[in-house]
Structures
1.
Amino acid sequence: MENKQTSILILDDEPIVSKRLKPSLEKKGYEVEAFTTSAAALARVRERQFDIVVTDLKMEGVDGMQFLTEVKEKYPDTEVIVITGFATMATAKESFNKGVFDFLAKPFKLGEIAEVIAKAEKKIKGTK
Amino acid sequence: MKILVALDTKDYSRKILKNVARLAENTLADIIFLGVQEGGTKPAKSMEKALLKYQQDVYSHFSPDESPYADFSSQKWQEKGPGDWIMTFKGMKEFRLRIRTGSVAKQTIAVAAEVESDLIVIGCGSKFGCEWDGEMNVPLRIAKDAPCSVLIVKHVQKAGEIVSILDQSVVSQDSLEMVNQLVTLHDAGLKIVGVKEKKGGKKDKIEKRMVDLLKYYNDRGISAWIKLLDSKDVKDYVTHSSREAIVALWMGGKESLVKKLFSRSMVDKLLETTRSSLLILR
């Protein structure tokens, strides 16, 4: 695990989010796949496991909560980070009840999410 | 999200804590409480006492097992530099108390830039307009020069509507997200007002922007109204709206028509007349 590249899936229906995040995380050495529809992201997680999943909540079709529920059921040790532009106490509570690693309200700086991802990676590497 | 809250020992600062606590509860943001004192070689007792009390007030909104912040425990001030003291509470999210010496506006802007905050929240008194410790221009100076969005809370009340004023210039993603969080927080209706210039061919561009935004909100299940106004009508419209709604003004790019229309004196006037809050977006 020590030498394996940490894999990250990003799901946000706003293309600008992945456009900002993907290159920045790749520069830090992560393997990143980005999706703007939950259907495509779901299809991908059914094919393979990611170490870390970063997902928006409010999306057309399968919403982020359903998506992260499926991810955690299929891969309990995948760390999920929720990013949302419509944060509420209820969605934060529900997310944590489903076992998410962290909950970030938008807007946030790239440094903030990079820090959370680094913490999640540390947790994963520490537990494997 | 990182929120910087500028506070002093006055009543208007105490009154915004409920808003700050609700923001913290909903967004699980990192919080920095900043107090600025005129001078001194150590934190003034009155400022220290006020910030610790304010922190306790915000903590009291969370049940102990649900708070994202570290337990309220005795910490000591660390000297970060001359006239700069910090106390950090590290939980899942960070809560910091900071005291600096100097001018309130200058120090608030400096800390916002240093910590890369996404939002500055500041209260103000309403006796003479929107004053801070007897000075009329502190909230205005922060609104004008801050590197991020600024929420000036004048009257603490639940807003039924957020009125967002946009023009043809590029609106940052951060601004849209800030408006979204406020709409969610207040469970408020959203009115997007597009400003078109009196003459010229920018109408199509602003109309397209409005339709795109409407689609953006419809796709996310948020009910939004759009309205297009001539630039000559927008000041009256905003002044009227600001009495009850939270008005969000996009004051970003150099080409911003809203920025041109809402000169310093106009924003000052809005701060005087508003019975709610003003959000300056960047």
Note: Chain A has a mean pLDDT of 93.
2.
Amino acid sequence: MLKNAFLMLLSLAIAIGGGGASVWYALKIQDGVGAIRIGQWTAFPDIGTPAADPYSKARVAREGVLALGRAEGLSFVAENDAAGDQLKRECSYRIEGGFPTARFWTLYAADQSLGVVETGKPRLAALQSYEVLRQADNSVTISVGHHPMPGNWLLTNGSGRMYFVLTFYDTPIASSTGLSDVSLPRIVKAGCDA
Amino acid sequence: MRNVLAALRRLFHAVLLGLVGAGIVHIVVLLLVPEFSERDAWSRLSMASDLYRMNRLDAEAGGAPVVKSVDPLFYAAACRFDLEEGMVRIKAPGNVPFWSVSVYDRNGHNIYSFNDHTASDGKLDAVVLTPAQMIDVRKDLPEDLQGAIFVEAPIDEGIFVIRSFVPDDSWKPIVSRFLDQSSCELQDF
């Protein structure tokens, strides 16, 4: 009798504990269902729409996100560089290449919660397409790091993990049909502060 | 020996049952999170302000941002509305480099969005209403609603968000004023 009760308790504990923990874990990881990957960049075109999968819906509800609409724009997040290493705030990077068609785009360095990195200076850790210098072939090269650099410079600060968030506003790629043949800039590590 | 084997078998059964149960609990919890979340955008906004009140979402207005993850080069404002009380009209005066608007339902799902290229002469003047209210309005369109953008949304409670681009520091006061002067009102009809 006592053994039966123990086994029942064990089943219940596994069911409730395992079920709850697996949901918590699934909502915590950055990756997930419904992601579209282009190079190192990941986007969730369906997030925040009624067509989203249950995991995205739960994440929206839990984090209080108000996702960009299709007519507004589309956000891409990068957490690795081209070599597959995690992005670090103490390293410097080069983001280079062409950008897809959009009215304008913004790029910022973000921390774990995708808020902008605090630089401790008046300069934001953000750039936008109206202020960047372009190459003759319309591509853009952006240097990311602590120290001022010629050309386009995205200031970062501190140490730890970093993410890049690249958002295109008023863009045809947000209406998912165009997403397949979009190419996004590469993220190349240029060096690290010891 | 036989007793030990039987006990192991029952233990194995119990664990298996637990795992199947975990799968069921996983699905149930996942589907219930949106219903019971107290951290969703609607709940956060309702702690910050009343219905039909424009509320800044960026940190510029002081204090921590109410709803997170707006682009640092953007300012944003939101108001909550309830279409059961009537249709709601949102207006914002002035010219800014870019604005975009989204209508969300109670759960924070994006129902409709548009940007300044959609509006006539770039002025933000929109009315959110249910399909039933739309039929009433169509019968006799009031003079001052002629230029407005009508957003038909099959919802009752919802959130209206205006986002506006701040290209550089010199635009900050202009974009701030654009959002602070925006209004979100219950429209009599």
Note: Residues 50-186 of chain B form a domain with the Immunoglobulin-like fold (CATH 2.60.40).
